[in-house]
Design brief:
Pept_M24, Pept_M24A_MAP1, binds cobalt (II) ion, aminopeptidase, alpha+beta, about 30% helix, metal ion binding, about 20% strand, metalloaminopeptidase activity
Length: about 325
């Protein structure tokens, strides 16, 4: 499906811009009162803008790298959603388990006063120590090993010299390339004392991701994922950014199918052996964003916060297995 304008760390064609526009104006109608009231609420968090990015980190020769990191080429992706063999599934399990353990490490490492650059360094080193390559590094020119998106940064925040503050919420997005396969996961963490609205937003984002996972089984329309997610978000007065989607994943970082996180007329069905990510960005305000001049950082247009959780899942013959637990 070649429809979305942006997906996780990848930009697709703009055929869908009209659809995104429609979905957004519908959302604006629905949320107008909530968003209007929201704009008057006192903010209990800092509005973040990009800081200084440290020099590129080194990766030893001995670490196997994806092709794009070796020669700057495009990632090689299948034309259609791939049904993986038992050998490929075993590879995905290993890569995803490593990504999950690094995310857990990052979550326990974070603290008030620590810069996101320090978190990036710690995860980078841990990743190399396990013999894996941090997939985001040099992916389409991305300069760091993880993404750290704080408060009003919706996604693809580049780790920098800004220290984390008491009350921040920060999404840490980790992907590793391990023994030939990518595993991708993210979570939003609370730093110190987060206000009630922020805590609720993070909880809703986690529930939305889990609602998407819960509908997965062979034969189900991929559309069911976005339907479940948007229902969950709307029930809490939250919105979902339509342009950032989940993706197929394997020996490639981002491939088909696109996993759309709102209810949108898509036709593909899930099949046993597919692996893809589910990673909705859930907003407390309207789902409007802009990309900053670094060409990566996506921030909300109204400075409101968003939260995101991500799993890589495998469709099994009887249902779904979360690989990044
Ligand atoms: Co992803």
């Amino acid at each position: 499906m070649m429809v979305l304008t942006y997906s996780c760390m990848r930009r697709l064609c703009s055929l869908a811009s009209q659809w995104c526009h429609q979905s957004r104006s519908e959302c604006r109608r629905r949320l107008s009162i909530a968003a209007f009231l929201h704009s008057f609420k006192k903010r209990h968090y800092h509005i973040v803008s990009p800081g200084h990015v440290s020099p590129l980190r080194k990766v030893p020769e001995s670490i196997p790298k994806p092709l794009y990191a070796l020669n700057g080429s495009d990632d090689v992706v299948p034309r259609e959603a791939e049904v993986k063999s038992a050998v490929q599934i075993a590879g995905m399990r290993r890569a995803c388990a490593l990504a999950a353990s690094l995310l857990q490490f990052a979550g326990s490492y974070l603290q008030v006063g620590m810069t996101t650059d320090e978190v990036d360094r710690a995860v980078h080193e841990k990743c190399l120590a396990r013999g894996a390559y941090p997939s985001p590094l040099l992916y389409k020119g991305y300069p760091k090993s993880i993404c750290t998106s704080v408060n009003n940064v919706a996604c693809h925040g580049i780790p920098d010299d800004r220290p984390l503050c008491d009350g921040d919420i920060v999404n840490v997005d980790i992907t590793v390339f391990y023994e030939g396969f990518h595993g991708d996961t993210s979570a939003t963490f609370l730093i110190g004392h987060v206000d009630e609205a922020g805590q609720k937003l993070v909880e809703v984002a986690r529930r939305c991701r889990d609602a998407g996972v819960a509908v997965c089984r062979p034969g189900t329309n991929l559309r069911g994922i976005g339907k479940a997610i948007s229902k969950c978000a709307e029930a809490e007065g939250c919105s979902v950014i339509p342009e950032f989607c989940g993706h197929g994943i394997g020996e490639y970082f981002h491939g088909p199918p696109d996993i759309i996180h709102i209810d949108y007329a898509t036709t593909g069905k899930m099949r046993a052996g597919m692996t893809f990510t589910i990673e909705p960005i859930v907003c407390e305000g309207l789902p409007d964003f802009k990309i900053l001049s670094d060409k990566w950082t996506a921030v909300s247009s109204d400075n409101s916060r968003s939260a995101q959780f991500e799993h890589t899942v495998l469709i099994t013959p009887s249902g779904v297995e979360v690989l990044t637990l």
